[in-house]
Amino acid sequence: MKLQSALVTLALAGGAATAQAQSWSSVGSPNNVSSGQQFWDNTSADGAHCNVGYILTGVAGTSGNACANQRPTGWLPYTGTTPTTYLNNGSGGFQAYSFGAGTYTFSLLSGTSAPGGDVAGANQDWGYFDILTGVKTSLNTTIPSGDVTMADSWGLYILMTNGTYAYSNHDNQFALFGFGATGATSATGPSGTAWIGGIEDIYTGHSGGSDVDYQDELIRIDADDIGIPEEATPEPATMTLMATGLAGLAGAGLRRKRR
Fold it and tell me: Which of 60, 100, 232, 238 is a Cys-bridge partner for 54, taking CB atoms 3.0 to 4.6 Å apart?
């Protein structure tokens, strides 16, 4: 029994995903404060009426709340479902994230026909990338229709205005909003089955900056069939070791019976 327990423990440890301290908090209202709800209500560069909070609550684009940088012109106000929660580090601040392997769909926000999800940015390249291989797939000009199957864990990326790339599993250029998501979540699988991702294309570093409205690119992500993250799958060598150990245990059991 001790050998069997050790083998099972080894198999589970042979690539389990490492969870980070993450939490979902209510998005509240877009009241343009610079602390507490970092991604939802920070002031936008064009006068506080076009941040991600104002867009996703349908305020941006209404009378008196013009969005100077919107693209295409005239698609606001947003008429889709408003997210209820946002992903953060437990104190309202920046939290890296990625998604597990599985089948997903990407779609533009309701009411917009912008190429990709480009809403108010500088038309930078952006999309999703395979965390294991690093291969990037651009969403900047075309959003794929139908299911997209991810073989490995993946995240979003953007080519920032300073010429460098940022990635959602590392950098703070990315905000993630959910629909009823609550509680802690693994670094490789945000809770829930639908999200809206907001991306900031101006480099801000981990300490923030002057333009942190997270509405340069906006995309809806739906999980159709969430699979096991790549890093949570036991390695082949581990599986062989486990099979060998179990075979040995079975042989030992037969010898005891014969006695």
Answer: 60
User: How many Cα atoms within 13 Å fall on the side-chain side of residue 90?
Assistant: 6
Residue 164 makes CB contacts below 8 A (sequence gap 6+) with: 203
Ranges of H-type helices in the chain: 2-13, 52-56, 236-258
CA 87/CA 181 separation, integer angstroms: 9
Residue 197, CB half-sphere, CA atoms under 13 Å: how many?
A: 34
Which amino acid is residue 62, in one-letter code? Answer: T
Q: Tell which residue, 102, 109, 171, 106, has the closest CA to residue 130.
A: 102
Tally of helices (H runs) and strands (E runs) in the chain: 3, 11
Contact 97, 21 (CB under 8 A): no
Q: What is the pTM of this model?
A: 0.74
CA distance 148 to 224: 9
Find out whether 41 and 53 touch, Cβ atoms under 8 Å. Answer: yes
Residues of the chain with pLDDT under 70: 1-21, 32-38, 47, 113-116, 181-191, 204-211, 226-259
Q: What letter represents residue 140's amino acid?
A: N
Q: Are 122 and 201 in contact (CB under 8 A)?
A: yes
